[in-house]
Structure formats: C-alpha cells, structure tokens
Amino acid sequence: MLQTHDTQARPFIKWVGGKTQLLEEVRRALPADIAFHRGLTYVEPFVGGGAVLFWILQQYPNIEHAVINDINPELICTYRVIKTDVEALISELSTLQREYLTLDADSRKEYFLDKRAQFNTKSTAPATTAALFIFLNRTCFNGLYRVNAKGLFNVPHGRYANPRLCDADNLRAVSRLLQKVDILCGDFAGTGRYAGPDTLYYFDPPYKPITETSSFTSYAKDGFSDTEQIRLRDFCNQISEAGAMFIASNSDPKAQKPEENFFDTIYSRYFIKRVSATRMINSNPGGRGSISEIMISNVANI
Ligand SMILES: C[S@@+](CC[C@H](N)C(=O)[O-])C[C@H]1O[C@@H](n2cnc3c(N)ncnc32)[C@H](O)[C@@H]1O
Question: What is the mean pLDDT of residues 144-153?
C-alpha cells in the first residue's frame, strides 16, 4: 500500500527569535523565480528552531539540497539525531513525558532539576542528549536557552499544566525532511564554501538589542556584538561576490531610535526593507507585541 505522510514538519522546540510570524515577509523577499530555480541549495547559517527551514523546504520542493548550521552543539546534536535515529529519540522522549506528567508540581521541579544536571554532564549519548534538550526546552521557563559562564544550561523550571513533550508525528515529519539537509555545527563563516550562483542564504543572527534592557543576544556564551554584525556583513559581501543570493533579518533599532543608522550604514550597498512583526517570547512584558524588523537582501524584489 502506498504510504502517505500528511503531517507538515514544524519547529520541534520553542526558540527565542523564532520566525513563524515573519514567514510571509520572508516569502515576499524571496527571488521571484525561486519555484523554478533548478538545483537550488538553501543555506541557513543561524538555524535555531528552523521555522524558515521547514517552511521553505515544504513550500519549494525544487530545493534539492539544504545546509543548516548553528553554534549551539546540543541543538545541532538534536537535529542530527532526528535525521538519523528518530525512533530512539521518540522512545526516550516518551519515557520522559510519561514520568514527568504523572508527578505533582513539587516533584516535577525536582525531576526537571535532575534532568538538567544530567544534560549538563555533557556526557550523555546523542539520543539522550536530544531527548533531554527537547524535554528541557518544553518544561523550562518560557522555552529559553541560556547558559552560564561555564556553558551550563541554567534556565529554571517553568510551570505548564500539561506540556506536550513528545510529538512523534512531527518528529518523524522533520526527520523525513532532514534527509536532504547537511547539518553543521560552528560559526556561520563555515558555510561559506557552499556559496555559488545556485545558492540562497537566509541569515537570522542574534538580534541587535533594541533597548538597553532587552538582551536577545545571549544564546551562547560568546554573544553577538556589533563587531560580529559587521563580520556577518563582510561574509554577505563574500558570498555575493561568489554569486549567491541572500536575505538577512534583524531587529530594527531605528524604530526606537530614529537617529540609529547602524544597518543602513553597514548594508548601504544592498536592498533594505522595514517590516512589522509580533514577538511573543520575552520574559519582559514590555518586549511583547509588535516590533519592527529589518530585512536586507541582494535580491532586487525585496
Ligand atoms: C535569532 S536565532 C535564530 C532563530 C531561527 N530563525 C528560528 O526561527 O528559530 C539565532 C541563532 O544563532 C545562533 N548563533 C549565535 N552566534 C552564532 C554564530 N557565530 N554562528 C552561528 N550561529 C550562531 C544561536 O545559537 C541561535 O540559535
């Protein structure tokens, strides 16, 4: 019998800066002929939760090959396990789900701390690391990922009544989609070797903070300073010279401070567009609601 798979793959974790609300803007910024571009490779050097990756691969099946990268080793371990050993992951995650959901609130917190300590040993087998990564993401405060100076995950327990920890259908759908994806771990610059005329890059780097207090940028222990933003611009120049197309998004500091011209200055040779987006994940209530985003591209129709 012919097997059909109806489940649409979507992000399997909550991730700060997740792009689900911006997909329409990304779609409008894509090259006009994207659906007809044969042999296109899609590269996402800051993949995070993968909202754009999953959407674009399902929307444009002509994308034959994709490359994803992130500097977070546990996140990348999880993508690799989903690609190559999804049933082992589902089995471990179902056990965590079953054990956690039967506990009362106090025991859940204890269980969470115990699993967080196990995750922080950094010596678990890949499928266990991936199961713990998803478990902690779904049970910690606001789905945040924050590490201390030693690189240890330190987000406290969140209190969700009935969190869905293991969505086996979605994990299998993601696994099928990842079969055409190369998965790299490291600095974004490592994706430079893929640049060429049949390559489309989408960059979603850690945001430039839009207010003094909001710090969207502490994903990994090294942060993402203005110097890093400029290094990314230099990388955009390099891949453009190799013939690649790119789209980049970031927070728009100009929305709060009209005199702020950082991105306009560093990306002056490219197309720039400002759009409005809704951001929900931030522990600071003032950070919720509609904020302005900036999109930069070397493709004319942005
Ligand atoms: C804004 S998030 C991406 C969100 C993603 N678009 C989504 O929908 O979930 C930025 C990502 O960049 C990663 N990152 C930070 N510095 C990096 C670097 N130098 N090279 C590659 N990835 C980096 C972080 O681990 C984080 O996952």
Answer: 93
